[in-house]
Amino acid sequence: MIVPEESNAGSEEVEGDEKPGSETPKPDDSPLPPPSSPKSVYRLAHFLELPELANLALQNFGSQLNADNAAHELFGDTASSYPEVRKIALNFVVENWKQVVKSKSYEVVRSKAEKGEGDVGTAMMLGERLMERWTN
Fold first, then answer.
1. CA distance linking residue 16 with residue 22, whole number of Å
2. 115 to each of 18, 24, 109, 110, 128, how far by Cα in Å?
3. Domain range list for the chain
4. Cα dihedral 120, 126, 128, 134 sign
5. 58 near 85, Cβ under 8 Å?
6. Rounded to the nearest 5°, which phi and psi values hold at 53?
7. Distances (CA, A) of 102 to 6, 39, 69, 70, 113
8. Which of 19, 68, 92, 130 is most open to solvent, judged by the fewest CB atoms within 10 Å of its CB?
9. What is the pLDDT along the chain (136 residues), one digit of tens a residue?
10. Closest of 99, 97, 118, 98 to residue 108, by C-alpha
11. Could you give the angle at the alpha carbon of 39 between the alpha carbons of 57 and 128, nearest 5°?
């Protein structure tokens, strides 16, 4: 299972799931390493030329996008470096534009753009895709 880097997976307790006398192990007590993010798995799979693993990582990345994180992901280093990741984030942002534009991550990205920071190429692609959507 691939989970986001800043995940709280496994931190929720469901009533009635615990047996008397058992304690839920804390993440620090686990003998297993912490889960990897789909972006990290994708970068590794891309480097090792493992297309099946890369596709799984891309699917997982797409499933974790939401209005609150999509702008950050679209203009992040991974999307800027890997066209496949950028395409998934870009499609999500275009399809969910009305929610994304209201998010905190969009405000941060917009603030950076106003200062001349950020990925101009991705911004151009986003603008073109939005205009295509609105004019068709």
1. 12
2. 51, 47, 10, 9, 21
3. 33-64, 67-136
4. negative
5. yes
6. -65, -40
7. 22, 25, 11, 11, 16
8. 19
9. 444 454 444 434 434 444 444 455 555 677 888 888 999 999 999 999 999 999 999 999 999 999 999 999 999 999 999 999 999 999 999 999 999 999 999 999 989 888 888 888 888 888 888 888 888 7
10. 118
11. 95
Amino acid at 79: A
Contact 42/50 with Cβ under 8 angstroms?
no
What residues have CB less than 8 Å from 124, skipping those under 6 apart? none
Q: How far is CA 2 from each of CA 12, 51, 95, 100, rounded to the nearest angstrom? A: 17, 16, 24, 24
- AA letter at 14: V
Q: Do residues 129 and 94 lie in contact, with contact meaning Cβ atoms separated by under 8 Å?
A: yes
Helix, strand, coil percent values for the chain (each to nearest 5)? 60, 0, 40
Q: How many residues does the chain have?
A: 136
